[in-house]
Design goal:
691 residues, alpha+beta, Beta-Lactamase, 6-stranded antiparallel sheet, 5-stranded antiparallel sheet, 22 helices, 44% helix
Length: 691
């Protein structure tokens, strides 16, 4: 607000005197002229006008904006309202806003000083003289209404802070003051003083914003923060402190109810030490409804100009870090026990950090690899310096993606090399170990030497292969003989004989299918499978596959639809692989689809590959068994009820063959709604896959 003494001493008295002489003198000129004479009146009027002009000249260059305004019409208007019985002017002007505008039109600006011209961005004083309504906009009408109410209530002065608009449209903060006269005659020359407080308001708002920001920062701290003065009364606390201790502003430590007597004793001692200039830092243990909690408490002196003015304290809940510390200690103990448990295990056990650096190996690692623990620890797992690194880079990329990115267990087989140069086959299982937040702490790998097991499997595969080859010749002979007899090559057969021959033919066919499957498995597992890619048209391959199952399709009256993308180019592929895969998929769809069902074959180009799919509306695959569908010898429970016979090898062989040549196979299925099996093959054969 404006301070007293802001304007020149004696100004109000001089103004009242001059206004009285000018206004009142003119109104009573005739009566005074008769009494004193025209010469005396003229002389006095001249002296009054001279004093008034001298006063205006004195205020012309005053640093504060000064206005002389004629409010006589406003005063008369208010008097008329009073005669009409208006008492509550606040309500009257609220109900009759037009009266406010009408009163504003009655005010005239008679004089402004240089400071006013500069403040309102006017080119000259004349731009501001005249009706006040030219300067005041609608936003300032509520302020003018308050002035009217002040006049109606016969207040001695009106003082307020508001926002004004300059002639250029700029908003400025002002402090306005009007001194109302004692008589109605003096309202014709009211003095209005305006002080520009824009810079002050800006600084005040900035200070307010800074305080708000500081309070927000203090309240967002995750620990209790408080301050006290020299009288040991709390003068500041943040929201966390308020949550823990309640409202403590203006209270002493003794008056805080949520702090125990024991804690008050400790805090009181710490506060006294802080007031002496010491910083106190300590850990405490407190009991609460949630159990024991641990806190780190700090209190330090607040200094100003070298003098201690109070103390600032912090109370940080460190229960979480304490628990982590305890868990880490427990984990260390568990790790020691684990090391003892795996020390004498027959399988290699390896522990690495998050980057794959080996931290620990058991004795089995030394025995199997031939490297000592000192040679192994500190090296990267799979490094060529040790017994790894034989597999290509793609193998290790897949491994790291599984354990690091997907955070899942990796299971695989690989060949490793011992220190003496001999190679062995191993099954490896690597799992990430997590902390409470699912972050990876380290990895644990278990490697098992399966060289002997692999040799046994190869021996079994060789036996199966040999036995299968030996069985194919007599089966082919039986099949051919049955077929010739059915065609009456040895004379006409009876109906009963034909039925027996058909049973023989079908059983031989099934046995041949089994032998072919066993031969394919043995070739894959023995590593003797050799693909022979050659240019082929996908339409021809599908036609050949359909021809093989044409009889089954007709017997069950299956509707077969084909959707072949015309953009599919000639591909390089082993035709036998496509024949086997398509035969297996079509055979399953026909077998497990009801009579009169539908099968749809689709083929399209996708990037550098082609995708083929076989869709049916058959029995589908139970959700809980879908993860096992490509396993060797596996058959779902629902299809066993439909047909008891079956090897469970078709899908296993299909996936194995496709993986050998860089392809993939997948499926979607819903129980009792059908299944879609899809597989992909590269358009151009990858030569390294055929070796």
């Amino acid at each position: 607000m404006l301070k007293k003494g802001l304007f020149p001493i004696g100004f109000r008295e001089c103004a009242n005197y001059t206004k009285k002489k000018i206004v009142k003198g003119r109104e009573k000129r005739k009566s005074r002229g008769r009494r004193e004479g025209d010469f005396v009146v003229a002389e006095r009027l001249r002296l009054s006008e001279e004093r008034y002009n001298n006063l205006l000249e004195y205020t012309e260059y005053a640093p504060v904006s000064m206005w002389v305004e004629d409010y006589s019409g406003v005063k008369s208007f208010i008097n008329r309202l009073k005669k009409r019985g208006v008492v509550n002017f606040e309500r009257h002007f609220e109900d009759h806003p037009k009266d406010v505008r009408r009163a504003l039109n009655m005010v005239t600006v008679r004089y402004v000083n240089v400071a006013t011209v500069k403040l309102y961005k006017a080119k000259r004083a004349d731009d501001l003289l005249g009706p006040l309504s030219r300067i005041i906009n609608n936003e300032s009408l509520p302020l003018f209404k308050e002035q009217l109410i002040a006049i109606a209530k016969r207040k001695k002065e009106f003082e307020t802070e508001t926002v004004a608009t300059t002639l250029t449209g700029e908003k400025i903060n002002i402090q306005l003051k009007i001194n109302f006269p004692n008589t109605e005659l003096k309202y014709s020359n009211l003095l209005v003083c305006i002080n520009d407080i824009t810079a002050h308001k800006k600084a005040e708002n900035q200070l307010k914003e800074n305080r708000t920001l500081l309070k927000s920062v203090i309240d967002s701290l995750p620990f209790s923060l408080f301050a006290m003065n020299k009288e040991n009364k709390y003068i500041l606390q943040n929201s966390q402190c308020r949550k823990s201790w309640g409202n403590i502003i203006g209270k002493t430590l003794k008056e805080v109810s949520r702090v125990s007597a024991k804690e008050k004793k400790i805090w009181g001692k710490n506060n006294r030490e802080a007031m002496k200039g010491k910083t106190i830092d300590r850990e405490t243990e407190r009991s609460s409804g949630e159990g024991k909690r641990y806190f780190q408490s700090t209190i330090a002196p607040i200094r100003e100009d070298g003098e201690i003015r109070g103390a600032l304290g912090m109370d940080i809940d460190i229960t979480g870090s304490k628990l982590v510390e305890k868990k880490l200690k427990d984990s260390t103990e568990d790790l020691k026990k684990f090391k003892l448990a795996v020390k004498y295990a027959s399988d290699t056990v390896i522990i690495t950090d998050k980057k794959g650096t080996i931290l620990y190996v058991n004795q089995a690692a030394e025995k199997i690899s031939g490297y000592s623990q000192s040679e192994i620890i500190g090296e990267k797992i799979g490094s060529r310096k040790l017994w790894g690194g034989i597999k290509d880079s793609d193998y290790y990329k897949i491994m790291w993606t599984k354990i690091r990115d997907e955070k899942k267990t990796f299971i695989g087989e690989l060949r490793n090399k011992r220190k003496d140069g001999t190679e062995y086959e191993a099954e490896i299982r690597i799992s990430p170990v997590f902390d409470d937040n699912k972050g990876i702490l380290f990895y644990i790998a278990i490697e098992r030497d399966i060289t002997e097991q692999k040799e046994i499997d190869r021996a079994k595969s060789e036996f199966v292969s040999l036995a299968s080859h030996q069985l194919r010749t007599p089966l082919s002979s039986i099949s051919l003989s049955a077929e010739l007899l059915l065609k009456d090559a040895a004379g006409q057969v009876t109906k009963e004989q034909a039925e027996y021959l058909n049973d023989i033919y079908e059983d031989v066919f099934k046995m041949s299918e089994l032998i072919n499957a066993l031969l394919n498995i043995s070739k894959i597992e023995m590593g003797t499978f050799v693909a022979e890619p050659e240019p082929a048209e996908i339409v021809d391959l599908i036609d050949c596959a359909l021809a093989e199952v044409e009889t089954q399709i007709k017997n069950k009256k299956i509707d077969v639809a084909r959707n072949i993308d015309r953009m599919i180019p000639t591909i390089e592929v082993d035709k036998n692989i496509i024949r086997v895969v398509m035969h297996n998929l079509l055979h399953n769809s026909i077998k497990y689809t009801d009579t009169g069902g539908r099968i749809e074959i689709n083929a399209k180009k996708a990037g550098g590959s082609i995708i083929l799919s076989v869709k049916d509306n058959g029995v589908g695959i139970p959700l809980r068994q879908q993860s096992k569908i490509f396993s060797k010898y596996f058959r779902a429970d629902n299809v066993k009820k439909i047909e008891a016979s079956g090897t469970g090898l078709g899908l296993y062989i299909s996936r194995s063959l496709l993986e050998e040549v860089g392809g993939k196979i997948w499926f979607e299925s819903r129980l009792n709604q059908g299944t879609v099996f899809s597989f992909s093959l590269p358009i151009k054969a990858k030569k390294e896959k055929w070796i």
